[in-house]
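Q: Entry one of two.
A:
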Amino acid sequence: MAYGFPPAERAHEREREHRLPTALRAPVEARAWREFAYLLLNLPMCIIGFVWTVTMFSLGAGLVVTFIGLPVLVLALGGCRAIGAVERARARSLLWLDVEDPRPVRGRNGGFLSRLGAQLGSGVNWRHAAYTLVHFPWGIFTFSVAISFFTYGWGLLTYPLWRWVFPVYFGQDGLQMYGDGHGHGWWLHTPADMLLCVVVGGALVLSSPWVYRGMAHVDRILVSGLLGPSRLAERVTELESDRGVVVDTAAADLRRIERDLHDGAQARLVALAMDLGLAKEKLLEDPSAGAVMVEEAHGEVKIALQELRDLARGIHPAILTDRGLDAALSSVASRCTVPVAVTVDLPARPVPAIEGIAYFTVSELLQNVSKHSGASRATVEVWRVGDRLMMQVSDNGRGGAAVSGGSGLAGLAERLDSVDGVLAVASPPGGPTHITTELPWRV
């Protein structure tokens, strides 16, 4: 669900341009008229929905003893879904409430009975039907209140302009408030009566936008709560998206490991095998030259071993498994190009999966500090709040970091989101930069 109100910057600019206070502008602003139109349309829509639901469900329930009743009930639910689509469109255009359409209901297979059972068992369908029933009394109430405030408010406020209608066409001094049938009563025609009408009408007109807004807010709750996707469906969609991120990340990591092995240790080991073959032949002809070649090959072995250690550390460092986040992050900080102070205050170790994500998150953030920040110092703080693992990486660099499309921070935010994590960036131009991440203590 999202509200489509204009950006705050433009709203503030328009606020400064207005000379009248908000209370005086509200009755003539577009929002009040849109919400008023929405409340007026509540009456026909709630009648249509209520009549459809009651009629079709009564018919379906009466025929349920035969096979015809079940298709009638499915038709009733389909009509409720169609009414819900109209209501979402109405809320989108008049209330600026964007509610996502729920997913279509499909059976497990293509059979008729499977589709029939899926429709009857769909919670989304029944929530649409419940909306048509709940909205009926609410729609009548909101229509009555809205039209009363509008007619009485503007009618009384403008009464001095149209009072002439009564003496000209009805033969009486003004609008009759009450009478006893014997010539005694109260007709609004004196200056005091005019003043009273203007005051009461003005009060109703000025208060009507807030009345409309309050009732429209209840409609927003009904539409978003009953006509949108269920929380379970939203969670399934979110998990599907997160699964795609995890799969893509894992595939990228495998490609990186394959590339590092192919371009680094593997190529070095191939060259080492060739050098040892040459050294073996050389030892028979020139032992001293062969010994030099063996010594060079020994140096290549050390380099290859170091590359393999670095690669293994990139997959999952042994120090993290053996000694936990404190030691592992201190090791990462020692390799950073700027001095880094590490503070880890954890009562226990999180589960290994979260611990690994936390380690690689801080590692990537410290790499960004080294490459892009221009900082002279940085800090890493890790602590626990409830069932969440909190981390903050700060530096005194140039700032300007942002989670924008295609950036490293955007990819990091997606990977954290795949495990219900959060990444927040505070990095004004000129610095300092504070990047806070939040992970679940357990997955």
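Q: Entry two of two.
A:
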Amino acid sequence: MAKGGSVSRFFDDLQFNPSLEQLLEIQKERKVTVLTGYNNSGKSAYLKKMAENERVLYLGPNRFYSFHFMSLFNHDENELSNFRQNMFNQRQSQYSNFESSFYDTNRALTRLTNERRQKLFEVFQELFGVEISVRSEFENNEFSNRYVNIDGDSLSVTSSGTRLFLGVLAALMDERFQTVALDEPELGLSPVLQTKLAPLIVARERDDELFPHNPRFLITTHSHSFLDKGTPSNNFIVSRNGNNIQARQCLDKQELIDIHFRMLGNDLGNLYLPDAIIFVEGETDKIYIQRVLCMLLPNHKIVVESSGGDIAARLNSWSSALGDLQTGPYRRRTFVVADAVMQSGLQRLVERLGIPVQNVVKWDGNGIEYVYPPALLGSIFGATVHSTSELIIVGDRVSAHGVTKTKMELAQALSAHITSSTEFPREVQIKLLGPLRNAIVPDH
């Protein structure tokens, strides 16, 4: 919508599919709903829309603060309506985005009853192995200022992650709210802290202690730790097209694994794992393909595995080592390269393991030599080789123009001449390099 020569999208212009009411109806029996998606996909917009309901507690991403002395609790019947009015006013501003949280840690802790606060401290102490309590500045004066003590230090000098962790849990324990909209619980938390918080708010492992009022949580996240891995359908993928925001329910475990992998950057190399693994029939296949990949994909770690003529056995071992190839990120990153006469049973195996059709490379000829660059073959055989059809292969020997090499001698000599500017046969480019690039280049 244009105003004053500039383009501005206002919150009220957004269209949600499903609508908030429909989303809540879909998830009415679920304790947790997780919204994932790229930045600016509209995840937070769902939560902010939800915050219009006075029975919903909205915890925005702006949760960073520090305090030493705890304030006194003053009951204010208008605090919720004042917060929602402030949020409404700010989101009407053309260049503002409401990111504030209704609760800070101080407010969240002081609002809890003594019994509920003590239960929070017990859980915190069990998780972190530290003593936590409320103390007076002067122990002999109960009217002196109070602060939260953690192992002899004030909460104010502990890490921001500790304060954020404690503040989020305290806010979620507010029994006035049956629904909590929590925007990116991972903010400011180390991976270790995330793995401590996620079981509490996603798996709901200690509901009886922390959340006896049985609230439901709707969260947005960019962290795989906060995906609901137990129930894939509790996860939604949010996307945006202009003012239209769509939330699509995760279909199954396989799609959940894909979401998980996307959150890790879609790049196994960054995790010090191979980007892909290619199973080939023999050592000469390995020597040639490794050299090709070294020249054309130098920034990717790709393992080429020689199978000694038995690709099926090696592929079976690989699948067993992973636990279940069909449900892991390597399903789309495992390749099989075979001759025209494929090993018996290999095709059935790759189908059973769920390896994509485009990842099964079947050369037109029987031998890796038939996909060598003809220009390089000419330099080895001392005469121009216009096509690999000129090669004569008998057993372990390859001949052309009166010159004979063993397959290993030819593979080593040819690979030594490969550079980044080498022109490879079209069959290599289409059948192997194209699908491989599609599999390992991260989506953005």
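A: Comment on entry two: Residues 114-128 form the longest helix (15 residues). The two ends are 27 Å apart (CA to CA).
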